[in-house]
Design brief:
Layout: E1 5-13, E2 23-30, E3 33-41, H1 48-64, H2 72-94, E4 102-110, E5 113-119, E6 123-128, E7 131-134, E8 163-168, E9 174-178, H3 180-183, H4 188-194, H5 199-208, E10 218-227, H6 230-236, E11 250-251, E12 254-259, E13 266-271, E14 274-280, H7 289-304, E15 313-314, E16 323-327, E17 332-333, H8 334-340, H9 345-363, E18 367-368, E19 377-381, E20 387-391, E21 398-399, H10 425-441, H11 472-481, H12 493-501, H13 516-519, H14 521-543
Antiparallel strand pairs: 1-10, 2-3, 3-4, 4-5, 5-8, 6-7, 6-9, 9-10, 11-12, 12-13, 13-14, 14-16, 15-16, 17-19, 18-21, 19-20
Helix pairs in contact: 1-2, 6-7, 9-10, 9-12, 10-11
């Protein structure tokens, strides 16, 4: 899972030698958004500090319960207008004039978007490419003799004038929220030079420039964009989804040679004598944002998941259509391979180990493959005829514990997944086990399950019943991986990996309804011998009477 990474800092100093001032600020991450607020209570109003404090708290609390259906613009404007109405009405009731009055700046970061608003003369700046620019609008008079007289503020009128803006963020952007007590002391040049050192440095610099004390409260909040959500950036690119593709067509220098999948969205192609695989966004993505989001996530995962068992993938910077490029493997799918013959025991073990290594790697990123099956495994042969395996299809990769229903192929799903249980290590181990069973026997342990079918599971037979070359220990490993009960199945990838490495230490596995002689021949014969001994002794006693 990715998100925009934001480094934050905030600092405030009261004017003169006062211990507390009229400024309040708060920065908080709420789910996938970062919210920053600076309020400067109007000093000419007796309750300015209280207004600043309450406005900050009110807005932050409302973002915690923001309706998901609301746009960010609607949320910001609605919350601001609401607190303005509350403070204005309370002032009229308690003071018969506007006393709960404050300025406001607020920014919200979501993905690669910056949403902001201000009321009054506190400011918001964006620092980018060594230059700082004001994003907010000063609600203040500029006439001689009326400098810094507010034309709008929270709580001053029944209706409030909100200045709202949006911006796209870039890596290394810095956003500054500050009260007038800061920018009235520091020039734009000093703001540009000091913003890299954070909020505290800016405020302390302002204080150091005063021969005596600060003439006004000075507050700064700095937000530094360390990383932008790449998925959002990719999603917003103005790229066409091609409606038709054909053999011989050239796309950004890639010549399409052969469609690899029936829907004609995945192509084998050649560029400068080298072969690649191009995967295009599905046609449904043209009109369906959810489908487009799904493809963008797939492309992003393909690019970032770098490991030897995956094909290398890139998203060309100068592409003209919505696609990504993958490494081409000169091999065949395990699915095609198994149509001819079963693979060797050694290769089956190597396959299972590769799948477990892949799953362990993904787990480190809180991910699962989601659709492990022979169709998504490429078998490669080296010059010596030794096999290796590569895992493909990034479209199914999803967060662990996801309840996504579109992920997975029915015949490889654990019984619990048919009951809408979340994807876990246990459910992925079941898919690995089914794949191993197929590789050993060319049979599905529970039969082939069709989409939308509600399957009935019966205990699977030992792989050795269909392939006598399968040793007892591998029978046990395979059956434990595909156990119908979660309690009898491996819980973690590491458990199965350990037993594959140490056949002598494999715990025997028996079906729940197995007879005693199957489960423990030694115990069976020991009990039988004891019973026979007791019977013989009883008979002997009768004869000696």
């Amino acid at each position: 899972m990715t998100s925009t990474s934001v480094k934050t800092s905030g600092f405030s100093l009261a004017k003169k030698k006062e211990l507390t001032g009229d400024d309040f600020y708060e920065v908080r991450t709420i789910g996938d958004i970062t919210v920053a607020i600076v309020c400067d209570g109007v000093g000419s109003a007796s309750e300015g500090a209280e207004a600043a404090k309450r406005t900050t708290s009110y807005l932050m609390n409302n973002f915690k319960i923001r309706p998901k259906s609301w746009s960010m613009e609607k949320s910001i404007k609605t919350f601001i207008k609401s607190i303005n109405s509350i403070l204005y009405q309370e002032s009229q009731v308690n003071y018969e004039r506007s006393e709960l009055v404050t300025t406001l700046t607020i920014v919200v970061i979501e993905g690669d978007k910056l949403y902001g608003a201000n009321v009054g003369d506190s400011r918001i700046y964006l620092y980018r490419d060594n230059a700082i620019n004001q994003l907010s609008f000063d609600h203040a008079m500029n006439e001689v003799g009326f400098e810094n007289v507010l034309t709008s503020a929270i709580g001053i009128e029944s209706e409030v004038e909100v200045y709202y803006f949006e911006n796209l963020l870039q890596k290394e952007d810095k956003i500054l929220l500050c009260s007038d007590g800061l920018y009235n002391v520091l020039s734009q040049n000093r703001l540009e030079k000091g913003i890299a050192f954070g909020a505290s440095a800016l405020v302390k610099k302002a204080s150091s420039l005063m021969e005596r004390d600060l003439p006004d409260d000075a507050t700064a909040v700095v937000l530094e964009i360390e990383k932008v959500d790449e998925r959002e950036v990719l999603k917003r690119q103005a790229l066409e989804i091609p409606q038709s593709l054909k053999k011989g067509q050239t796309v950004d220098g890639y010549v399409l040679e052969k469609s690899l999948i029936q829907n004609d969205r995945t192509w084998l192609c050649v560029k400068k004598t080298k072969r690649y695989v191009l995967k295009f966004a599905p046609l449904d993505g043209i009109d369906n944002p959810a489908i487009l989001d799904f493809f963008v996530k797939e492309a992003w995962n393909a690019k970032r998941l770098k490991a030897d068992f995956f094909p290398k993938a890139v998203i060309p910077k100068n592409r003209t259509l919505r696609y990504y490029v993958m490494q081409w493997f000169d091999g065949e799918s395990l699915d095609e391979c198994l149509k001819r013959k079963k693979i060797s025991i050694d290769d089956a073990v190597k396959l299972a180990q590769t799948l477990l290594q892949t799953s362990q790697f993904l787990l480190g990123k809180d991910l699962v493959h989601g659709d492990i099956k022979p169709h998504n495994i490429i078998v490669l042969k080296d010059a010596n005829g030794d096999s290796s395996f590569k895992i493909i299809d990034f479209g199914s990769v999803t967060e662990i514990f996801s309840t996504a229903t579109r992920v997975g192929t029915p015949s490889f799903l654990s019984p619990q997944r048919f009951q809408s249980e979340a994807i876990s290590e246990g459910s992925e181990l079941f898919s690995i086990g089914v794949t191993l069973y197929l590789a050993l026997t060319n049979r599905y342990p529970y039969g082939e399950i069709e989409p939308f079918q509600s399957p009935t599971f019966k205990e699977a037979k030992k792989p050795s019943k269909y392939n006598p070359n399968v040793p007892d220990w591998l029978d046990s490993v395979t059956l434990r991986a595909i156990a119908l009960s979660k309690e009898r199945r491996y819980e973690h990838y590491s458990e199965m990996a350990h037993e594959l490495k140490s056949p002598k230490n494999v715990r025997p596995y028996f079906n729940e309804n197995a007879s005693l002689i199957e489960r423990s021949p030694v115990t069976f014969y020991r009990v039988g011998f004891t019973i026979m001994t007791l019977l013989n002794m009883a008979l002997l006693a009768l004869l000696l009477r």
